Amino acid sequence: MKPYVVGIDIGGTNTVFGIVDARGVVIASSSIKTLKHADVNDYLDDLHEGLTRLMEANDAVDKIHGIGIGAPNANFYTGTIERLVNIPWPTPLPLAQMVSEKFGIPVAITNDANAAAIGEMTYGAARGIKNFIMITLGTGVGSGIVINGQLVYGHDGFAGELGHVIMKRNNGRLCGCGRTGCLETYCSASGVARTAREFLELRSDDSLLRNITVEDITSKDVYDAAVNGDKLAQEIFEFTGNILGEAFADFTTFSSPEAIILFGGLAKSGELLLRPLRESMERNMMPQFKGKVKILLSELKEADAAVLGASALGWEAK
Amino acid sequence: MKPYVVGIDIGGTNTVFGIVDARGVVIASSSIKTLKHADVNDYLDDLHEGLTRLMEANDAVDKIHGIGIGAPNANFYTGTIERLVNIPWPTPLPLAQMVSEKFGIPVAITNDANAAAIGEMTYGAARGIKNFIMITLGTGVGSGIVINGQLVYGHDGFAGELGHVIMKRNNGRLCGCGRTGCLETYCSASGVARTAREFLELRSDDSLLRNITVEDITSKDVYDAAVNGDKLAQEIFEFTGNILGEAFADFTTFSSPEAIILFGGLAKSGELLLRPLRESMERNMMPQFKGKVKILLSELKEADAAVLGASALGWEAK
């Protein structure tokens, strides 16, 4: 087997790519701008040039086993990106095939949360765990579900959209998916900011957050205020952790995972989020599952995580 | 490979067992009373005698590949029954081992809803379907989840408790599991009867159901009234189908199944239940899953289904 894989993480702004060895060490990485390229072929040329340069500089040409790509709305089965937001390329885009033809190397593709799950299983907190759920708490809430050591893709490749289970059936917040009450409208970074705006409007107590223009409040602002002892900001984390715990208790009835692993900006809130999350999860858990499900944090370095996750898929590429 | 398997379905009242061939034909079946035996060893003696007689009468001695058992709260991994309701045997009960030693034949055990899923996959509506969810609508709501052709047991053997996802987070009905708002408090046969009692108390319109003592109303009474044009009874099915559809839309975000297969008494309500169920599922579905998930009815004969389902597990017994 060839000794390296390549991981490519396609984000709305940047595309980061790196060469990774079998122990999960990122040998070298680089990036190009995603959005710069109105034509996907220009983008591929740029990617080809950048990655070829990286391989040459690291004596990795002809040593790449496979390329793994993580991208929003990417389908493992079809190798296509189904929908793109803010990127003007035609969809469905057969990206796996396009990249494979460009490099002459097998390519596999999946969405970013699934890539994170595979990365965690291969190199991170889920090593040796056969049944777990990866939850990414970023701008949205993503998920990758692993059962019997296999990623769950479902019959069409789109399984694992746990950010879109309905947590509030009445008067729920409008979600980007067009429905209301989805988990991610409450428990993502932007959900936390929305909660802050709601709390500030509905309540009259003092808060450090009142010093910030209400439209500009971010989850980081809420975190900073909470760490500084701000009561209202701390209650926002209680509220967020409570809903997340309710959701995790429901997820457990489905696949009874050994662990739920958190990744993403909000996951770095520490006990501010984790304490109310654990308490709520246990309080809402069906009796036979109480005390059984671990909440773990990702063990992948954030700078490397997206590339590592995508690269792990490269070992499976055929 | 030996040509037959045995399926044993352990219910609170009766234990039904049968000899099944590779095409899913129940060659012969019989039953004993479960509850009659205060001592589990007496029960096993009785089962041994009954099943041996059945095997002898059908020239099946030494032709049994394995025995599959379906029982409430049975754990596939450990081979034990974890909890028993209304049966006074000690738990956890290592039933797979006890039966295996009694007969000298490999035994596998799982809960009744998982057995139904395996039966449907082996002999019924799920033949050729690799990703589906079996929902049993009986006194409770049970589930068996199949992903990539494999039953989902989870890390501890207890996955697939979809009757206990929370559908009403406020003011939900008390569930046998000790929590409130579980799916099965609304969408089981007893849930339908509870809805009838609620509707009759809260509303004042005429209904055929008012001719029945309110405590005695069953889901069958509601069905009969609805078929006879009773508006209130029809609305009970609307209410039930609506909640079930909300739940199915959430389940789809998890495993994106090709089909959800219904089994059990309530599943025989036909379009009274299926129309509002399908409408609600599609209305609540995340856009990318709309129109993709089939609602199918079990294709196993009800009299044989439990034995068939358990027997299918017998092929896997080692």
Structural account:
Two copies of one chain form a homodimer. Chain A starts with a strand and ends with a helix. The radius of gyration of chain A is 20 Å and the shape is globular. In chain A, 37% of the residues lie in helices and 19% in strands. With 318 residues, chain A is of the alpha/beta class. Chain A contains nine helices and twelve strands. Chain A has a five-stranded mixed sheet, sandwiched between helices. The A-B interface holds A 82, 129-131, 145, 147-148, 150, 152-162, 164-169, 177-179, 246, 249-251, 253-258, 284, 286-289, 292 and B 82, 129-131, 145, 147-148, 150, 152-162, 164-169, 177-179, 246, 249-251, 253-258, 284, 286-289, 292.
In short:
The structure is a homodimer of 318-residue chains. Chain A is α/β, with parallel strands linked by helices and 318 residues long. The first copy, chain A, is 37% helix and 19% strand.
Principal-axes geometry of chain A comes out as: globular
Number of strands of chain A: 12
Low-confidence stretches of chain A: none
What separation lies between the terminal Cα atoms of chain A?
A: 12 Å
**Can you list the strand order of the major beta sheet of chain A?**
3-2-1-4-7
